[in-house]
Amino acid sequence: MTDSQQLLTEYAQAGSEAAFRELVARYVDLVYSAASRLANQDPQLAEDVTQIVFADLARMARSLSPKVMLGGWLHRHTCFVASKAMRAERRRRIREQQAVEMNATPDHSEAELAQVAPILDDAINALGAEDRAAILLRFFEQRDFNAVGQALGSTEEAARKRVNRALDKLQSLLKNRGVALSAAGLGALLGAKAVAAAPAGLAAGIATTALAGTAGSTISTLTVLKIMSMTKLKIGVAIVAIAAAATVPFVIQHNNKARLQQENEALRQQAARAEQLAAENQKLADQLAQAKGPGATQAPTNDNSREVLRLRGEVGKLRQEQASEASHRTNGPSALSSLTSSPEMQKAIRDQQKMGMGMIYKDFGKKANLTTEQTEKLNDLLADHVMSNIDQITSVLKDGKTPAEIDKAFTEQDAALQEKVQALLGPEAYGQYQDYTRNLASYLTSEQFKPMLTGDDAAKDKTAKQLYQVMQEETQVALAKNGLNADFQTVPVLNFRNIASEDEADKNLKLLQDIYDQVTVRASSFLSADELKKFDDFKAKAISNNRMGLTMNRKLMAPGGK
Fold it and tell me: Is this model's pTM higher than 0.70 or not?
């Protein structure tokens, strides 16, 4: 059984969210690339197709064979979904593209890829099962011949021959459709261009939405906060991409619902019992009063007196239990700490944080040329920092600390992280890390708004760089104006003080709103009227979703879940 088959089995049998997320991360590039080709490079449609494919995988996981060749299944299903989404448009474009391809001089360039792309996936889908698996394993999953042989149950040499035969057949199919490429040229093209990177954050958003979609099924899965489903780039809210990864992105709805139902039922039973005891108490008290009143012919019995005392004792006990329950709701463990009391859940939550922080700092790792080991250790440090701050927030909310005490607690946490990161990266890379972190809002805003810009890729890149520069400058001005340190984190959901204090959250949200307003004024010099309108919607959603994320996490981490 391959690693992918093992992960699929873990998800299908145990509902392992971590296993499903790993599958999405492993195959999202394959699916997105195929979808993008089938959608004629329409990024929006490619994302939608990719989302549907993985949602179907989450839904159908239990019905798939444990021995399924997952890459092949995903590719085939991508073709099916994409063909349903855009069959008529795709056929029209294929006919036009084929006419161009007939007169083109083949070379292994971007132009050649554009010729092959519209019909490549259909041709691969027309291959036999074994040939299709060989092509996908070698060129789409980018495995070496030894790994291909293991997956196909053969030797390295047999895998090499299988791939070569499959290339010949694929070349023949493409030739019949008007594309003249040699088998060797086709292999070179596939090796270089078959898989393109999916947009940043797409894997996390897809995994979240797909998992959330199976909450009502027979598979028991973790269901995340609704804000996580907003990480899809088409929503265009820059800060949500980071909110999804950096805030605590999990609520186990089933467990919480069951817990609340149990608590409500217990309270209803206590109330009913108290009401019953009070009625009995009153009844006996009336009987005693009658017995002691004028005209009474008989003294109250000892049995009646004892019964009154017993009932009063029961009422007192119930009052103590209710007081204890109220105290527990105010000072008891948070909803989140109740979950993390389980070692397995603690590990799952930490792994999720590590994945999210890895997404945020992925581009930094590339720019700083970090080694794989450094990247892994950095993500570990960032995940541990999130987990320690979760505990800190619950403690702050429980103890009702002053703003000064809150700031001191989180400043110490930040200082400890900075010391560890500096020791890991060294002075030069650490300086880049600091610069990247303080400019996260500017960077992610420009990157997430880029798809909404008009023009070709070069024009969008130029405008996005202008937007980044303007937001960076306005952020520096706003921080200085408010007497804040240059390292102050302007992304509200990344500043843990904002979860611990609602007042601090309001200040940070206002600060971000002011920055955005100033950016809008300056951006009018290089954004069109339509783009400015889109940016207004963009920043409104950013503020709204940050506010929602902070509120949700504050409730999760508050003692007693209050």
Answer: no
